[in-house]
Amino acid sequence: MREQPAAAPLASAGHRRRLWELPPRALEMVLGMALPHEALRRVARRVLRAEPKAQGHALHAGLVTECRRRGPLAEALQAELERQHAATQRQAAEAGSAEALARWWQGQAGRGELPGALWAVLSHPRCTEALQQQVLGEVQMLQFQAGQAARVELARFEALIDENAVLARALAAAQQRCTQLAAEHARVHAACLADNAKLRGRVAALEAQVLALRAGAAAAPTSAQQEARIEGLERALRKAQAPVKAPLPAPGPMPKPKPLAVPVPVPVPVMQAPGSLGGAGSAVAAGPEEGLGQRNVLCVGGRTAIVPVYRRLVEARGGRFLHHDGGEEDKLGALDATLAAADLVICQAGCVSHNAYWRVKDHCKRTGKRCVFVETPSAAGLQRALAQVTQDT
Fold first, then answer.
1. In the chain, how many domains are there?
2. By residue range, what is the domain housing residue 111?
3. Is residue 219 part of a domain?
């Protein structure tokens, strides 16, 4: 058999093909891949000395038409290709045969270095027609695959945009719910703080009432003893005021009648209970007078034995009685809470500590609360203070 002659190179020996020497299909591939679109516009602007009016595909098609023949635009694009891909062309120049050039192309295509490798192979002196068709076919297939991948990526990108919009709406709704929950939490917190303040006031009032009840319970035996003593003195007074009968004379001669001496009643002093001084007993015995309107009346100071009398005087005028001894036995720390629970303060200034006096005065001045100071601690002084308060109101 006769051997087939080897495929002849497309270019003459030692001569690299120029851009205008390429076939139309190869020319389209080179201008589409070997040079970026901005480089094409820059070269066209420099040669034409004006901004090209064509854009995109129209610019590419116009440049392909111009480069089919040698001219200023074709030579400028040839120089740009030589400048950008000089290193790749030096690598391809080491291939001394079409087979070596084909192996070099496969290596470059596997690494994805297509732009420079395409121009280096098509312009190489050892490039044959078969190698040219192989390279152009592979590049076209890669373009199809790249286009398909781009379409897939575009579809994925659009799906991601839609998903992002859905998530953005869900995030906005969640943020709105969080804002509403935060506002509701703030309202509930404020209501809890207000309820807590009210409960603290009620607890302070109850603690003051407990202290007053304890003081009254401690003074109860003393009051009972005083009432028993008063009853004993009243019995002695009635016995002393009873008429005394004269003794009968012994039998004998009747003496001259003389006027009988009528015994004169001897007045016995009546000891009054500590709460009856200055007419306080009559005020307690009288019916309750409406004047305090169920207000909390705090009595600071006063003798412990007269505290039950203070209570009866306040409750007789329609008030609720609170008491603090002014620092003698009760703790001063409880005075602030008791003052906060009171509507009216009566301070027995003569029997409270200096610290308690200034605490009462400062609290009433700061809160605008009504306060009456009694110099001498007594039931009569408290009764006068209550009368003054009820007249003012």
1. 1
2. 19-127
3. no
